[in-house]
Amino acid sequence: MIRSSTFPVLVLLILVCFLVSCQQGKEQAQGQKKPNIVLLMADDMGFECLSSNGSLSHNTPELDKLAAGGIKFNFAISQPLCTPSRVKIMTGKYNYRNYKAFTYLDVGEKTFGNYLRDAGYSTCVVGKWQLNGLNKNSEYQSTDKELYERPLHFGFEEYCLWNFIGSSGNRYADPKLIQNGELLMGLKNYYGPDVVSEYAMDFMERNKDNPFFLYYPMILVHSPFVPTPDSKEWQDENQRLKDEDRYFKDMVEYTDKIIHKLTVKIDELGLTENTIFIFTADNGTHYKLTTQTVDGPFRGGKGTMPDAGTHVPMIVYNPSMIPEPFEYNELFEFSDFLPSFLEMAGIPIPDEVDGRSFYPLFSGKEQPQRETVFVHYDPLKAGGPERWYGRFVRNIEYKLYNNGRFYRVSQDPREKNPLSDAFLTSKETELKKAFQEELDSAPEHYFKQRDEYKK
């Protein structure tokens, strides 16, 4: 028999145990819940375009805020051009392994969409696709139905895309967009980036109770440089396709506005703490544009292999995992996204993946440094400065190309003064030798086949 004097104490102990058990269960459930992943990749926006990276030409308050509250990467390295970057980021492999033709992703590849969908994520891709072109030497023949289902083939259950099938059409005013197999109609007074962004927000709302992966290769800020809905010229329907370089500023700042809309939506859904939000860009700024920066004017280098073509902004934001914001001054490259996402989702990383997981860093933990970056670049596209092709290995300070050009890029980012072997220090000689061994580890036959792909 329980004494009345001890009964309140017993009840209190039971209540405390119950509350502790509930809290532990809640924490375990939260620990087991996979994080949502949102990856945005701007089109043709070099590192110098963000005001948090020193731009004086553009104002990017939302990206600056995310950088100040998360991880700001100062050495993220992309491919020099759009499709090569898309193939690399989606598959986690170097281009010499699986890049077959411009505007084409080999149907035999498995993307981060496939892996995450198979792991129980709801998956969606919106924005610019540019992957349905065919390798002319391939025996694979696509029907229209197969082309419309290509995002599904690569693991995306939903999509709203430009540059998808047939004639690309406009990307900005009166856009030609394909949404889940249907051509969207009645968009004469709509702005393409707004349409795909609205679909992205709707996708997140519909999947707020499930882990989701949203991949948003953005339509902005690629040429033509035309008015945005925030430009005064937008009010005149006849000026909406007016192509002038001065509109690039408006387009960068509209990109920032879209990012603000997405982060506000994530917050409204109560998902900020469990969403890893990532922003980057596919390559450098268009080569005809010059950005004024705190370090002086900086000309874009899209399609070329120096920093102006391959050094891109990157920000990772998640306040629950990254309580103390910081700048990351080590290397990161595009093959690293896929293995990072796989580790987030608890998926084993296949041996054929070239990248390494940065999930420890993304979750605020210690990250082993990447010593070098390897870039193989052959756009398999005629015309323009991007016709030059090659390979390089680099670290933060030095860079070696497959033709022997060796630069101290920390002091010569424009690569105007190759280093002569006769004047290298013993340390530089050893480093160049190590870089050469890494270059030699990749087969060269790809270059010999490049002309066949263009026939």
Write the layout of secondary structure elements.
Layout: H1 7-32, E1 36-42, H2 61-69, E2 71-77, H3 82-91, H4 95-98, H5 112-118, E3 122-128, H6 144-148, H7 150-153, E4 158-162, E5 178-179, E6 182-183, H8 192-206, E7 212-217, H9 247-268, E8 275-281, E9 290-293, E10 296-299, H10 307-310, E11 311-317, E12 326-328, E13 332-333, H11 337-344, H12 359-362, E14 373-377, E15 390-394, E16 399-401, E17 406-407, H13 426-440, H14 445-453
Parallel strand pairs: 1-7, 1-8, 2-12, 2-13, 3-4, 3-7
Antiparallel strand pairs: 2-11, 4-5, 5-6, 8-11, 9-10, 14-15, 15-16, 16-17
Helix pairs in contact: 8-9
How would you explain this protein's 3D organization?
With about 450 residues, the chain is an alpha/beta fold. It folds into 2 domains: about 35-370, Alkaline Phosphatase, subunit A (3-Layer(aba) Sandwich), CATH 3.40.720; about 390-455, no CATH class. The protein is built from 14 helices and 17 strands. The protein has helices spanning about 5-30, 60-70, 80-90, 95-100, 110-120, 145-150, 150-155, 190-205, 245-270, 305-310, 335-345, 360, 425-440, 445-455, and strands at about 35-40, 70-75, 120-130, 160, 180, 180-185, 210-215, 275-280, 290-295, 295-300, 310-315, 325-330, 330-335, 375, 390-395, 400, 405. Strands 1, 2, 3, 4, 5, 6, 7, 8, 11, 12 and 13 form an 11-stranded mixed β-sheet that branches. A 4-stranded antiparallel β-sheet has the order 14-15-16-17, with helices on one face. It has a two-stranded antiparallel ribbon with strand order 9-10. α8 runs parallel beside α9 (about 245-270).
